[in-house]
Amino acid sequence: MTLTGMKKHVGILERAGFVVTEKVGRVRTCKLGLRQLEEEAAWIEKYQKLWDARFDALDQVVEELKRKETFDGRENGERASPRKETHDGGPEVRA
Amino acid sequence: MESEHPHGKKLTTVDRKSERELVVARTFDAPARVVFEAWTRPELLKRWWAPKSTGLVLLSCEADVRVGGRYRFEFGQGTSKPMAFFGNYLEVTPHSRLVWTNDESEDGPVTTVTFEEKDGKTLLVLHELHPSKEALDAAMEGMEGGMPESFAQLDELLATLG
Asked: What are the tens digits of pLDDT across the range B97-151?
């Protein structure tokens, strides 16, 4: 491989984060860029925890809205057609 | 992509989809209209955006959810200076799509949230598109080091959430 070809090759690896290079004088040293990948994975894990906590809280709000909707729906439904929900003991059963 | 845990707990997934994109996804056991409502009514939004377990306190939460409308969330923690997050809504399509800008930094991402209903459940996908690879890299590093100390505390608290 030519030196130019090698430079190109390393450049691609560097942009992808697989290697990091450092040039001192005429010598360019390459090392594996795993650290960066590990940091990214750690960050993603933290971000996942933030959104997971948020979405757990959102889930609670959503469940509450669903219950309220069912309750309101039954209230309206009972008024509109009293024959509905004959199997149900009424809203207090769900409370 | 697995989204349902064997024990019924729904999983939140986070993926760096490309150099500029980050995708967060989760399924909710409710119709899209209900999930959308929880995202678009400020009095509901403020109940879940900063859950207690994160240690953050939402000081104010304003959201005028319509095209061109603005939002502003202010967080505080202890004695540290409050942090503000703000921007405006680019798209508001009831029950299916929200798009907003993140203007607190110069190269903030554009966030798109889609609500996809299937069999009474809603797949929620939050997509962040950053202006460049460098911007997303910086955002990721930011949470690690350069952020206000409140975020360092957030890190600790998040670690306890396990």
From this structure: 999 999 998 899 999 999 999 999 999 999 999 999 999 988 887 654 334 444 4
**A57 Cα to chain B: minimum distance (Å):** 5
Q: In this complex, is the C-beta atom of A88 within 8 Å of any C-beta atom belonging to chain B?
A: no
Give how far B126 is from chain A: nearest CA, Å: 10
Q: What is the pLDDT of residues B56-97, one digit of tens each?
A: 788 899 999 999 999 999 988 766 788 899 999 999 999 999
**Cα distances (angstroms) measured from residue A78 to each of A71, A75, A94, A95:** 10, 5, 16, 18
Q: What is the pTM of this model?
A: 0.71
**A38 shares contact with chain B (CB less than 8 Å):** no
Q: Please tell me which residue of chain B has the smallest CA distance to A48.
A: B14
8 Å CB contact of B26 and A40: no
Q: How far apart are CA B24 and CA B14, in angstroms?
A: 4
